[in-house]
Structures are given as structure tokens and as C-alpha cells.
Design goal:
- By secondary structure, the chain is mainly alpha-helical.
- The longest helix has 102 residues.
- GO terms for molecular function: zinc ion binding.
């Protein structure tokens, strides 16, 4: 799109004056204010120049405003067109760059009725087709982006659901293991406590005999001593056998 900046008269601007332009000369490629346009339109050399309003000129696309009828290299007007290189040429261009080009045509012949030529309608149709294709491609990409966003959201939900399922499974597994451990620990502790109580009873019995042994030897008769020794022997033998049975079993093996 063309710029909406205010257009100034080229002639006045060169003199340091900021007058708004009203006319654009397509041949001089100069913007004129009302005062400067009058002598231009009356001059014998420029009175037949084609002009357009500055407002219409400003509506032109920027790339068209930048197209000049003069060669930028030699500052001469384009007069020929090289079909081989597809570019306009001034007479100096022919000498410098296009000596070997065979398809040089007068530019004026090509410009006759160019606006009414079939190529204008053809290019307009091509632009329409290209625009439709671009719009279709953009619409497709927008649809793909929307679809991709939806798929991404679904994927995130699946990942989170999977994570929750794994967490739930691990939590249940942890709780089952803890419950099993607690059950085994309670059973083991109960067994060890019961065993310890049994051993404490036997220890108490041995302690009692041990504490009374000196009195037994001092104050009993020979018969009493004989029978007492047999009883002590019996109890110590049973206790020793009890301990040996415990040691030969798995009662003293660590299970945790």
C-alpha cells in the first residue's frame, strides 16, 4: 500500500518551501503544487505531458511509485526494451550492456494500449488465483494449528492420566508392602515377646535356685540335699535342652 504521508511539491521543496502537491507528472516524475503546475501545463515542452492528481498518485503501491522512466545508471530516458534480459534500456545501456542482444524493441511500441491488452486481464487472473491459493494455504495452516493444539491438549491429558494411574498403582503397591511388613513385624514381635516371657520365667526359676543354693547346702539333711540336687540337675538339664533347641531352630535368626 502507498504511504499516507502528505505529498509535497517537488519544486517548492527544493527551494525549502513546504507546499502540498496537487498533481503528479508521469513524464517529468515531479509533484507540483497548484502554482507550479500552471507554468508546467502551459509550457510548449510539457503541456502534453500526462498528469494525475497527487491523491491518486499516493494511492499507487510503493513499488509502482518507485518505478522511473529514466535509467538510474545514465540518467537518460528509457527508449528501448531488451526482451532477452526483460528490462527497459536507454541508448547508453545498449552501448554498455546490450551490444549482443538481438531482441531490442522500441519501448513506445510495447507501451501502446498496454492497459487494454490481454496480458493485463491474464495477470489480474493470475493474481486472483495466487491470492486464492495463499488464502487456502493460510486457512489450511490455521486448521492444522487448531488441530495440533487439540492433539497437544489430548496428549497432555493422556500423559497426566497415565501419570496418575502410575501414581495410584505405586501408592497401592506401597500401602500393600507396608501392610505386609507391619503384619510380619507384629507377628515376629509377638513371637519374640512370648519367647522372651518363657525365658524370663525359666531365668526367674534358675535365679531362685541359685539364690537358695547356699542355704540348701547348709541346712538340709543328706537326703534332702540328694533329692534337691537331683531336682536342680533335672531343671538345669531341661533348661539347657530348651536353649539348645532354640539355638538349633530359627528363633535367633534375624528376620528383618
Amino acid at each position: 500500500m502507498a504511504s499516507s504521508v502528505k505529498q509535497l511539491c517537488t519544486i517548492c521543496h527544493d527551494d525549502g518551501i513546504s507546499n502540498s502537491a496537487v498533481t503528479w507528472c508521469t513524464e517529468c516524475e515531479v509533484l507540483f503544487c497548484g502554482d507550479c503546475e500552471k507554468p508546467h501545463s502551459k509550457s510548449h515542452l510539457s503541456k502534453n505531458h500526462k498528469t494525475m492528481s497527487a491523491d491518486d498518485y499516493q494511492k499507487l503501491p510503493t513499488f509502482m511509485q518507485e518505478i522511473s522512466s529514466q535509467c538510474q545508471d545514465h540518467k537518460k530516458k528509457f527508449e528501448l526494451y531488451c526482451s532477452f534480459h526483460a528490462c527497459p534500456c536507454c541508448v547508453q545501456c545498449v552501448t554498455d550492456k546490450h551490444k549482443m542482444c538481438q531482441e531490442m524493441k522500441p519501448l513506445s511500441e510495447l507501451l501502446q494500449q498496454v492497459k487494454s491488452s490481454a496480458s493485463v486481464q491474464l495477470f489480474e487472473k493470475d493474481l486472483k488465483i495466487v491470492k486464492e491459493n495463499i488464502d487456502a494455504a493460510i486457512k489450511y495452516l490455521q486448521t492444522r494449528i487448531t488441530t495440533s493444539d487439540t492433539q497437544n491438549t489430548i496428549a497432555i491429558e493422556k500423559i497426566r492420566y497415565t501419570r496418575k494411574s502410575i501414581d495410584d498403582y505405586l501408592n497401592k503397591l506401597e500401602q500393600d508392602l507396608l501392610n505386609d511388613l507391619e503384619s510380619k513385624h507384629s507377628q515376629l514381635k509377638s513371637n519374640m515377646t512370648s519367647l522372651m516371657q518363657q525365658m524370663e520365667q525359666r531365668a526367674s526359676q534358675i535365679n531362685q535356685m541359685q539364690s537358695q543354693f547356699s542355704e540348701t547346702t547348709q541346712y538340709t539333711t543328706e537326703l534332702q540335699m540328694f533329692i534337691a540336687l537331683r531336682e536342680i540337675e533335672k531343671i538345669t538339664s531341661q533348661t539347657t535342652k530348651y536353649i539348645e533347641d532354640l539355638e538349633s531352630g530359627d528363633h535367633f535368626i534375624e528376620k528383618i
